[in-house]
Amino acid sequence: MIQTAITAYLPPVSWCQRAVAAGELVLEAHEHYQKGSCRNRCEIAGPNGRQLLSVPLVKGKNSKMPIRDVRIAYDETWQRQHWRSIRTAYGSAPFFEHYAHELFAFYEKKYIFLFDFNIELIEFVLLQKMKWPGSVAETRAYQPFSPTPAAPLPRYPQVFEDKNGFLPDLSVLDLLMCAGKNGLDYLR
């Protein structure tokens, strides 16, 4: 089965559940960018609850542009800010030390296009670290789609759960840092 999906910056757990259930993920590379979505935003579990991380984009008419052509802006030090937030949120997580060095490399490299940044992060988390045996590809032309319903969201131990309670459907990064490669079991 194939799951066509929008690209996402460190996608939510529900997004990853649908991909894992399908076995093959095809990212829509020709849709028009939609502002205020998971395409350039993710939520992590910070010490004070949900924390939004947003990748800034080059100003212009991104909403009229194919997602494949949307460029990342570097006018501000967002990479440093995101890394600090990730380190603060997950520095004490069981698997942070296992993945920190490799993950940090994504915040040192200056990607031109949001799509490329997202697809490399998705492959890093799902294929390389969680060992998902599926595949990730991109569409060759626009393919209208509607996401399949996600299964009930998994519950797994979170870093600040004692303080904030369980926060469902955070970025898959939360699951990776808290459960490591066993995170894949929670997505099935």
Question: Layout of SSEs?
Answer:
Blueprint: E1 2-5, H1 13-22, E2 24-27, E3 41-46, E4 49-54, H2 78-90, H3 96-106, H4 114-129, E5 135-138, H5 161-164, H6 172-179, H7 183-187
Parallel strand pairs: 1-2, 2-5
Antiparallel strand pairs: 3-4
What's the overall geometry?
Answer: globular
Number of domains: 1
Broad structural category = alpha/beta
Q: Biggest sheet: strands, sense, closure?
A: 3 strands, parallel
CA(first)-CA(last) distance: 15 Å
Rounded to an integer in angstroms, the radius of gyration calculated over CA atoms is 16 Å
Strand content: 5-15%
Query: Number of DSSP strands?
Result: 5
Unreliable residue runs: none
**Helical stretch tally:** 7
For the largest sheet, list the strands in their spatial order. Answer: 1-2-5
User: Helicity, in percent?
Assistant: 25-40%
Mean pLDDT figure: 94
Quick description:
Helix content is 36%, strand content 13%. It is α/β, with parallel strands linked by helices.
Describe the structure.
It is a single chain. The chain is an alpha/beta fold and 188 residues long. The chain has one domain (2-187). It is built from seven helices and five strands; from the N terminus they run βαβββαααβααα. It has helices at 13-22, 78-90, 96-106, 114-129, 161-164, 172-179, 183-187; strands at residues 2-5, 24-27, 41-46, 49-54, 135-138. A three-stranded parallel β-sheet has the order 1-2-5, covered by helices on one side. A two-stranded antiparallel sheet has the order 3-4. A hairpin with a 2-residue loop joins strand 3 (41-46) and strand 4. The protein is globular, with a radius of gyration of 16 Å.
